[in-house]
Amino acid sequence: GELLCEHRGSGEPHFAHGLCQTCYGEFIKISGGLDGGAEPPAFQRAERERLARASADENAADSLLEPINGIVKESGSLDNGGNDRLAITGDTGEHKAVDGGNEKPEKADYVGSEGDESESFSD
Q1: Do residues 29 and 23 lie in contact, with contact meaning Cβ atoms separated by under 8 Å?
Q2: How far is residue 12's CA from residue 2's CA, in Å, rounded to a whole number?
Q3: Which residues, other chains included, contact 28 with Cβ-Cβ below 8 Å and sequence gap of 6+?
Q4: pTM above the 0.90 mark?
Q5: pLDDT of residue 107 exceeding 80
C-alpha cells in the first residue's frame, strides 16, 4: 500500500495502516496502539485517582458519622467547603396503607348550589 506518513516517497516499505515500520512503532508507543487507544495513559491515571478519591471519601464518611439527637451529621470530608450534610433519622417501621383510592364518589358529592341541572353551562 501507499505510505501516508512523513516518509512518503522516500522508498520506505509500507508496514501497516499506511505507515512505515518506524512511524508505526512511534504510533503504538504514543497512542497505546489500536486496542489501548480507547484508554490512553492519562485517562487510566485520572480514572485510578478518581476511584481512589471516591474510596477515601466513602471510608471517611463512614467513620465520621455521629448521631446527635436524631440527626446524623457528616463532617470532615476531604473537600469540605464548609458544607456539612445533615440527614434526619426517624422511625423506619412499617406504615399501614390507607385504602380508599378506588372508591367512586357518590352523586351527592357533585351536587352544588345549582342542583342537578345539566343545562347550567352556556355555549
Answers
A1: no
A2: 10
A3: none
A4: no
A5: no
